[in-house]
Write a structure and sequence with these properties.
By secondary structure, the chain is of the alpha+beta class. Helices cover 58% and strands 15% of the residues.
Length: 191
């Protein structure tokens, strides 16, 4: 009986705790916060544009044709996932029957949930980390890079064909793992 009561109480406590902790986790993500703020700054203009398109019976296809854009690009702009470029702003506003500047909030690049740059950084680390670790071992022995005494530098560069490049430098302290001396028995328990 005691274990049954404990189980019921545990289920209730976990049930009450999980939604709050899950909410806190979602709200504590910096990316989620930036995306949320970006979306809500853009939302009034998105609402105006989408309501006008609906009222005029404009599809992604027809708006794209009028503004010389492929339909998916129009859809990405109207869902807030891509910025509206200045040259397309005038066309969108004209086609949608909006006053000049009504869609100005859509000109700034949006901060996106599951943003591609974050995904690509994870991908780059996942793909190249084993090689980087091997290089660190060859140069420093059994070592990891500290992310505590750590700095990241980001700078713009040019590629061999003149294209813009992004250079990211992780600068962390080389921290060696414990060696045999650290693992030797001592006469003092707990050292």
């Amino acid at each position: 009986m005691r274990s049954f009561i404990f189980s019921v109480v545990a289920v209730l406590v976990v049930g009450l705790w999980l939604p709050g902790s899950a909410r806190a986790e979602i709200e504590s993500s910096v990316v989620d916060l930036l995306a949320h703020q970006s979306y809500h700054k853009r939302k009034p203009a998105l609402d105006i544009a989408n309501e006008a398109a609906y009222a005029k019976g404009l599809t992604l296809e027809s708006l794209g044709k009028a503004c010389n854009l492929v339909p998916i690009r129009v859809g990405a702009v109207l869902t807030g996932q891509s910025p509206l470029e200045k040259k397309s702003q005038e066309c969108f506003e004209s086609q949608l029957g909006l006053k000049s500047g009504a869609l100005a909030a859509l000109l700034a690049p949006p901060a996106r949930w599951n943003v591609g740059s974050i995904y690509r950084l994870h991908e780059a680390v996942d793909v190249y980390a084993p090689a980087i670790q091997r290089w660190m071992n060859e140069h420093f022995g059994d070592t990891i890079m500290s992310a505590i005494t750590f700095v990241v530098y980001v700078e713009e560069g040019k590629g061999s064909h003149g294209e813009k490049r992004i250079r990211i430098t992780f600068d962390g302290k080389a921290l060696p793992y414990s060696n045999d001396e650290d693992w030797a028995p001592s006469s003092t328990p707990g050292r």
